[in-house]
Amino acid sequence: MKGKPTPDVPVCVIGCGPIGLAVSLLLSRHGVSVLLVERRGELNTHPRSRFVDTNTMELMREFGVEKMVEDSGLGPDWTACNRWSVDLATTPFAELESPTFLSVPGPDSPCLPVMTVQDEVEKALMTRVIDDPSISLHFDTEVVELTQTDADTALILRDARTDERRTVTAAYTLGADGPGSTTRAVIGTALESSPQPIHMQDVIFHADLSPYVGDRKGALLYTQPFEGVLVFQPLDGLRRWRCQVSIGQPDPISEEAIRARILASLGTSDDVGLDIVSMRMWQPTPGATTHFNHGRIFLVGDAAHVSVPTGGLGNNAGFSGARNLAWKLAYVLRGLAPASILDTYEEEHKPLALERIEYGVVTTTVMGRMMLGYRAGEDVGEHIEGAKRYADYDYLLRGYELSSELIAPNLEPAPELENPARDFRPLVRNGWRAPHIWVDDAEAESVLDWYGNGYVLLVGPDCDAESWEVAVAALPDGAPIEVRRLPAERPIAPYEADGVVLVRPDAVIAQHLSHASGTADLSAITPYLPTMAR
């Protein structure tokens, strides 16, 4: 009796934006081949996202492109503050520190956050994709039909250059096709969004604005001359700029009108040369889909959830979701885990995405009240205080707590914080990202560099590492788990000298044990290994 036909590829990824590139690289790292298709003929020529948070930079480090992304970003002279003024030549009425954006090294990560533009991130990721034999990349390739059965998914692909069509089967398909995703409809879901009453014309241009910015640099420079709000965003700190122009209507205004609006916001009568490269319209539509997958088709990034641009929360949430899903999908494809673990992708990731969506909307509202109040001549001190949340939210980004059957329940309550979005401190806590510590005297290797492939069992220096290794080696079916001993000669806080920590491939803590210096006992560990019989 013949068996079922094998799919042509294990995974097809639709969309070659930053999330599509990242999830393809993650799958490849886990030994899964990928067909990556993109309907455009090239990478994004009008970049949208602009902030790469610390967690995402740790992923860039994992890919080996951390330095490339870091070198493309703005320095701390640009990222220390956000500023609000009538025009660029006017003294700001609000100058707020932006510690979450500040591009300086910190003690809690081997990486620093980077204020860089989306196309630079895509270029860096592409250097890895094109050299990866497990990833087959096809531009000018449109998915004209996507269907699925219990056994696989089927895609009809059209070559936009020749109109030739072919059918490809994939065990799983991931829609990374952005906010306008067509994959959503295939799985019977829709974006449950709340369109904001804002219409922005996005402009990429080249100009020397240094005479008008002066020493008032900022990651975001808000201006509000009489015609409405304009947000200046430095892209390279030299001549490349992005400006978001509020136009109050869904249809774009002319390039001549845009040019006049930008010049008015400089606060000068100079004849400033503006080389406008491209323009796009957009309206904030924050929301998430009713479900992130159906059967063998999954949504990642903006296809699953869309944030307002405020704070750069959307793209970074997309990277978190890609990291959450990729290893689980790889484990299923490699026969290391049951398909049921894929249900934990939405269970774990959707609450994170919704929290960030809400934070962005509230921040935008507070900031809008501040600008409207200033224009009306009101005392905006209270609103300025509230607007500090714009770029001071490390706990939201780095202190999130995932929950599912793959993660042991926490026995202790969550930490109480004065400001739940701002006051991050690294903890060894189930569902959290594992904290960074340096494991060598040169401070070149982080404990985070140990993660990314299989599970890692961290044992403190007071534990009998050899007995834990023996216990792990006795696990059935060669479970992909490695024992690593934390250094005895270096500070390891917040890890405990007599503690044991089970860390997933996505660097999330699945279980931790205190006072584990005696005989190795895996009974509290194995229930959270998906490779074991569940």
Which descriptors would you attach to this protein?
534 residues; alpha+beta; seven-stranded mixed β-sheet; 22% strand
Q: Compute the average pLDDT.
A: 94
Show unreliable segments: none
The largest sheet is:
8 strands, mixed
What proportion of the residues form beta strands (DSSP E)? 15-25%
The total beta strand count reads: 24
Please state the structural category: alpha+beta
User: What distance lies between the first and last C-alpha atoms, to the nearest angstrom?
Assistant: 31 Å
Instruction: Categorize the overall geometry.
Output: globular
Rounded to an integer, what's the Rg over CA atoms?
24 Å
Helix content: 25-40%
The tally of helices reads 13
What does this structure look like?
- This protein is of the alpha+beta class.
- It contains 13 helices and 24 strands.
- Strands 1, 2, 7, 8, 9, 10, 18 and 19 form an eight-stranded mixed beta sheet that branches. The chain has a seven-stranded mixed beta sheet with strand order 5-4-13-14-15-12-16. Strands 22-21-23-24 form a four-stranded mixed beta sheet, covered by helices on one side.
- Helix 1 runs parallel beside helix 5, helix 1 packs parallel to helix 9 and helix 9 packs antiparallel against helix 10.
- The model has no long low-confidence stretch (mean pLDDT 94).
